Amino acid sequence: HPGSLEFDRSRSDFADGSPRRSSLIETIVSAVSPVRLWTALRPSARVASTTPERPMPPVPPAPAPRLAPFLGGTFLAQVASTALQVTMPLLILHITGSPVTAAFSATLSSALDAAGTILGGRLTDRFGSKPVLVASTIARGAAVLALPLLAAGTGLTMPLVLAAYLIESFARGVADTARNTLPSEIAGKDERLLKKILAKNQSFFEAGGIAGPFLAGALIAGAGGAAATGALWLAPVVFTGVAVSYLGLSKRPQIVSRTAPSTEHASDPAPARPALDSWTKWALGVTALLTLYPLKGLLPAIFATSILANPASAAWLVGMFGVG
């Protein structure tokens, strides 16, 4: 057969035509050739040729949170707070006619405000800033809602007015703490965004401090006094807007890292929180009682009713204080 003949000739090296068999040494040498040896020592080369490495898609930037609910809530909350600074001293003076009673009520209000601030820190640590802020705002609105309802119904009495005033003051302290810690939760780890929030928040805070007294003064002058039902509806309505605004708050979503978390400091104990001793707590309480915040509404109210005989002028004085 021609094919068999050519095959036999290719295997014949000797003079007598006998076929030559491959030696064991030639077989080993061909098995461990440089190309095969290099491929065996680099398995990644074979893997790369069959499964090419795909680049990871870029991490999309986190969308910036909406600041309008927070800034709007800050503005409206300050409008309601400064309006109450005008209304409550005038209302107590209208019921009792005693500046001493009004001053004593302002002192109790400041003390409960400080107590609410301390409790607000613990509530914020446990539940977060937004739930505490919304709940405390609703509590403030519910407390002052009793005033126009009482004025339209059975009438305003000093115990009921003082109870509403103190409840609102305590809830105000809780809300202030939650609102002050909220920017860090909104910004997350974005220091640039945090500075932006704090700068804008101060501007809206000051604007609300100016608008509140003038708005309260306009209602007092138009309704016929601080005890008029129309003037007392301002704070409950504004607090409703504050609560609705805060419900729209959102946080910056955290980007989940694609790398494995480092275990270098996993076993390190958490840093201990410094405990406040009794003297520090007393110092904080006395400082809160000596603050001029309640006097900003009390002194103009006494001056307006005793000297000027015009309750609405107290609002103009408080408003000009905010302008300054």
Explain this structure:
The protein has 324 residues and is mostly helical. The protein is 72% helix and 0% strand. The radius of gyration is 39 Å and the shape is globular. The model is unreliable at 3-15, 45-49 and 254-266 (pLDDT under 50).
From the alpha-carbon coordinates, what is the Rg to the nearest angstrom? 39 Å
> Count of DSSP E strands?
0
**Major sheet:** none
Percent of residues in beta strands: under 5%
H-E string: HHHHHHHHHHHHHH
Which overall shape is indicated by the principal axes computed on the Cα atoms? globular
Helix fraction, binned, reads: over 70%
Give the termini distance in whole angstroms. 118 Å
**On the 0-100 scale, what is the average pLDDT?**
77
Low-pLDDT ranges: 3-15, 45-49, 254-266
Which structural class matches the secondary elements?
mainly alpha
Seen as an oligomer or otherwise, the chain set is: single chain
Q: Characteristics of this structure?
A:
mainly alpha, 14 helices
Condensed summary:
This protein is mostly helical and about 325 residues long. It contains 14 helices and no strands.
